[in-house]
């Protein structure tokens, strides 16, 4: 079975930088036994890893984010994994400023 996995593994030289990074992230998650986090979806754009799916606990949510953040080449992580007690993946960011105040001082 291991031989089949090696044959099917994409060759890193044939992949774009983002796809190479995505493969490294998937390998890191698989090596820690976290690839099966309920249909975890992983995408990479310009070195930013985007995560989506479901986790059974906040601990699993945090573990996935920590592992992904530690992969060499990852510039940032957008964690939209749903888990009990974790921040809502659809949260909005409110940026309010006073138009009279300069943004940069």
Defining key terms:
105 residues, three-stranded mixed β-sheet, single chain, Histidine-containing Protein, Chain: A
Quickly describe the structure:
The protein has about 100 residues and is an alpha+beta fold.
Helix and strand topology:
Elements: H1 2-8, H2 17-31, E1 41-45, E2 48-54, H3 58-69, E3 76-82
Parallel strand pairs: 2-3
Antiparallel strand pairs: 1-2
> What's the CATH architecture name?
2-Layer Sandwich
Which range does the strand content fall in?
15-25%
Residue-averaged pLDDT = 77
- The largest beta-sheet arranges its strands as 1-2-3
Instruction: Return residue spans where pLDDT drops below 50 for at least 5 consecutive residues.
Output: none
Helix content: 25-40%
Give the overall shape: globular
Please name the CATH topology.
Answer: Histidine-containing Protein, Chain: A
SSE string, helices as H and strands as E: HHEEHE
How many distinct beta strands? 3
Major sheet, described briefly?
3 strands, mixed
Characterization of the model:
- The protein has 105 residues and is α+β, with helices and mostly antiparallel strands.
- The protein has a single domain (2-82), classed as Histidine-containing Protein, Chain: A, CATH 3.30.1340.
- 32% of the residues lie in helices and 18% in strands.
- The protein contains 3 helices and 3 strands; from the N terminus they run ααββαβ.
- The chain has helices at residues 2-8, 17-31, 58-69, and strands at residues 41-45, 48-54, 76-82.
- A 3-stranded mixed β-sheet has the order 1-2-3, covered by helices on one side.
- Helix 3 links the parallel strand 2 and strand 3 (76-82).
- The longest helix is centred in the N-terminal third of the chain and has 15 residues, at 17-31.
- It starts with a helix and ends in a 23-residue tail after the last strand.
